[in-house]
Amino acid sequence: MGFIPLTLNHHTLLSVPLRNLTSMRDTDPNKFIAYLAIIATPFALGAFLLTWAPSAQFASEDPAGDGYVPPRSTHALVERTQESTVTVWCEPKVGKGSQGTAFAIELKTDVSNSYPTTLITNQHVIEKCIDVDHKLTIALPYEDPVVAVIVKWDKKNDIAVLATKMKLPVLKLSKNDAWPGFWVMALGSADGYEGSVSFGNVINSNSAEILITNNISHGSSGGPLVDNEGFVVGVTSWGSKKEQYNGAMSLNAFCAKILKCAYDSGKTWWDYSND
């Protein structure tokens, strides 16, 4: 008597006698069809699960929990971050001006009633406009500039807070330390080209800075450095002429004058007490 082996999974073999199937088919076609349907159902379910699992994983835009991989949709991440990132022009009435980048975050300031959108940039981007007659403007790529004001700054950590009436979606700040090897994206106005994007990874970090492989140029300063989930891990700040890396001020640098950090130490954004 012959058998047809039907593999349901790695551990189960179902063997059906050919004679029984033939007899059932001849005596009661409806029972035969129902019997085949019962046998076929596990195969159909298995095929569905095998195709659904990877497709569902790919459809997940943010690879949460794995900072080393690129985002599921780089296009979506770039567009979402661009919506919150602007070019900054500092034009003092006397002397040469400067250009950089800024991005919107959720932060209450003393001028929030008049200028509800808060922006982060580098202190050196707006340094020439501090305490002098100046014109400070910001703009999304290819849009008309609007006025921004300087709220406060931290020269030591090279961070400044601006505010504007322009409505921008805010970028969230990462709660996860930027470990060596993590995928990161920098946005800015590299060499005056608004909306410039560069991809790279974290090389290492210290108490206030993150070393990155991303290409950085004049005009990139003040732009957001985001992880593969779109959360800000730092502020793109400087380029190295001698070494093969560039740098960003990490969120730990915010704690001195910009943010009230959430941890008991009051000194760092990322809590190292459990490391």
Summarize this entry quickly.
The protein is of the alpha+beta class. The protein has helices at 18-27, 29-59, 74-82, 123-126; strands at 3-7, 13-17, 85-92, 98-105, 117-121, 134-139, 146-154, 159-164, 183-190, 193-205, 209-212, 224-226, 232-239, 246-250. The protein has a six-stranded antiparallel barrel with strand order 3-4-5-8-7-6. A six-stranded antiparallel β-barrel has the order 9-10-11-14-13-12. It has a two-stranded antiparallel ribbon with strand order 1-2.
Helix and strand arrangement:
Elements: E1 3-7, E2 13-17, H1 18-27, H2 29-59, H3 74-82, E3 85-92, E4 98-105, E5 117-121, H4 123-126, E6 134-139, E7 146-154, E8 159-164, E9 183-190, E10 193-205, E11 209-212, E12 224-226, E13 232-239, E14 246-250
Antiparallel strand pairs: 1-2, 3-4, 3-6, 4-5, 5-8, 6-7, 7-8, 9-10, 9-12, 10-11, 11-14, 12-13, 13-14
Profile the largest sheet.
6 strands, antiparallel, barrel
Rg calc: 28 Å
Spatial separation of the terminal alpha carbons: 65 Å
Give unreliable regions as ranges. Answer: 1-16
CATH superfamily placement of the domain at 90-164: Trypsin-like serine proteases
Helix/strand-derived category reads alpha+beta
Proportion of helical residues: 10-25%
Explain this structure.
Among the domains are: 57 residues, no CATH class; 75 residues, Beta Barrel (Thrombin, subunit H). The N and C termini lie far apart (65 Å). The N terminus is likely disordered. The chain is elongated and about 100 Å long. It is an alpha+beta fold. The protein has 4 helices and 14 strands. The protein has a 6-stranded antiparallel β-barrel. A 6-stranded antiparallel β-barrel has the order 9-10-11-14-13-12. Helix 1 crosses helix 2. A hairpin with a 2-residue loop joins strand 9 and strand 10.
